[in-house]
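Archive maintenance. Older records in this collection stored only the sequence; we are now back-filling the structure field for every entry so that each record is complete. The fields below show one back-filled record exactly as it appears after the update. Entries are processed alphabetically, and Universal stress protein is next in the queue.

ARCHIVE ENTRY
Title: Universal stress protein
Organism field: Agromyces indicus
Length field: 280
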Amino acid sequence: MQVFTKTVVAWDGSPHAEAALRWAAARGGDEVLELVHVIPGEDQASEYLRATGELSEQRVALMDRAEALRAEHPGRTITTHTVHGRPEKELGGRMGHDVLVAVGTSSHGRETAWTLGARLAAHRSRGSVAVIPADWEATARRNIVVGVDGSVESMAAVRVGVEEARRTGDELELVHSWVVPTSWNSAYVEYLGDVQLMEDMRRDVLDEALDYARSLGGAPAGRLEQGGAAPILAERSRTANLVIVGSHATGGMARFLLGSVSHDLLLEAVGPVIVVSDNE
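Back-filled structure field:
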């Protein structure tokens, strides 16, 4: 079961882009690795040449980086593209069910909630986006964590998690979080019974995801947590090699206004995160 056949990396020579590239290359495998440098604005000549007919500096830098990468990973198919336009449009156009697009975190910090990774996760195309912090290599990391909630989207995340664990040899952990509704204000004994019933129901959701992962050949552990999903998964990202979640965005403005666990996680995580929209 190979989920992705190509990884597209947004590259512009910045430390953030380099971090995403190193992460994508380190995943190994025989996926095509495509480096895309998106230059903002309209092309004044062509995507490759200056008006003088010489290769642009951006194109030369991209080609040089690809050559160095081929030397580090002989036999790996590595392609390059230099294009002009908006990054979310150009990269979003390359998304697909078997394509992973990898980007670095914003070089501008958290002054905006709509980082490139968040915009791509909200893109109308079906595909998966990996957002890689610049310092992801600075911390010892040990496992792959998948957030599950019983939805079709989270099952797609489970599929990706099983494949990533198989690829890396890391342990796979499925995490389901839940909260007690704030409107519950019944008598103490009744309240305890209601909470226990909800916990049992939530454990059933986790068990279903575990069974599904095992049916794909995975060997997952399960973890039931009480609390908000985004904060819990963000905390797990401190030590996890990778955190994977499904996107519940549906299209149009609803997709753009992501406002979901996946969006919040992208802003809070300190380790690599993959948001899966669809991989079938």
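Update note: The domain at 6-276 is CATH 3.40.50.12370 (Rossmann fold). The chain has one domain: 6-276.
Entry marked complete.
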